[in-house]
Structure formats: C-alpha cells, structure tokens
Design a protein that fits this description.
CATH superfamily of the largest domain: Transposase IS200-like
Strand order of the largest sheet: 2-3-1-4
CATH topology of the largest domain: Alpha-Beta Plaits
Low-confidence stretches: none
Number of strands: 4
Largest sheet: 4 strands, antiparallel
Radius of gyration: 15 Å
Structural class: alpha+beta
Number of helices: 7
Number of domains: 2
Helix content: 40-55%
Shape: globular
Order of helices and strands: EHEEHEHHHHH
Length: 163
C-alpha cells in the first residue's frame, strides 16, 4: 500500500550553513529515500525548515526516512501529514515549491536552486525527484506536463495557501 505524505522538518534556527550543507542534506535524502522505500515528488530546503512530498510504500517508511535524515542533520522536529492524493497532491507540490516566493527569498520559483520546481516545471535533471502518477496525467508528453504544471503553479502563485 502506498501513501502520499507531506513531511515537514524544522530547526530552531538556521539549519543550512551554505550550499555544501544543502547538497549534503539532499545526498542524505536521496540515499535514505531509496533505502526506506519512499519516492520523493517535491521538496524545498528553506533556511530553517524542509518540506518533502513523498510516497511511502510501507507503514513506517516515512518515519524511518525522517529519523535517518534528522539523526544525521540539525533538524529538531518533524511532522508527517497524510495527503489525499487526488484532491491535494498537486496543490501540495505547488505549496512546497512556492515557499521561497512566499518567503520573499526569490521572485519566481525557478530562481530558487533548492527546490524541485525546476525538475517538475522546467525538466531539469534532479536525482531525487520522481513524478507522481497524477503529475503524469497533466499531459501526454514531458513538455505538455511541464507546461501544464508551470501554468498550474503560476495561476495560484500568490494565493497558494497551506495544504
């Protein structure tokens, strides 16, 4: 059985010192996601927290992933929220990838290096991101899917609320 989940990991202060720190976190996430039977669909690394949208293939997979990454990093708290995939999955992806825009770190989601937006909307290679079946339903070709997703994000860029 698979479950769509929104993992939020928080720190009490800044959790990433620099680009190398963020790359190390992403390496951990890639390694432990496959080890813990999780597939990542979207993510963003913010200065003091992380959002990850994933599919977990066992009951404990997401908790194991969270524990493995947090035990190797400076994240003190975690919350795992179930997502009703048909209703909220794409909205949750948009919410996650627009975090840096809402925080006024960048003006456009494609300008933020530490999120999955460029993989999902622009087709950039990202070893962490695997499309969800609902993302595949956005179009017949990769180009159609990326354009449809980019429009979906842009149409609610300033009104996206928390899922």
């Amino acid at each position: 059985m698979s479950n769509a989940l929104h993992l939020i990991q928080r720190a009490r202060s800044v959790c990433f010192a620099d680009a190398n720190d963020r790359l190390a976190y992403l390496d951990l996430l890639v390694t432990f996601a496959s080890h813990c039977a999780c597939i990542v669909h979207a993510y963003v690394l913010m200065p003091n927290h992380v959002h990850v949208l994933l599919t977990a293939y066992s009951r404990d997979s997401a908790h194991q992933l969270d524990e493995c990454v947090r035990s190797s990093y400076r994240l003190e708290e975690a919350e795992i929220r179930p997502i009703h995939a048909r209703r909220y999955l794409l909205g949750c992806m948009r919410y996650i990838e627009l975090n840096p825009v809402r925080a006024h770190i960048v003006r456009r989601p494609q300008d933020y290096r530490w999120s999955s937006y460029r993989a999902n909307a622009l087709g950039c290679k990202d070893p962490l991101v695997a499309p969800h079946p609902l993302y595949y339903a956005l179009g017949r070709s990769p180009e159609e899917r990326r354009r449809a997703y980019a429009r979906f994000v842009e149409n609610n860029r300033f009104g996206a609320a928390s899922p």
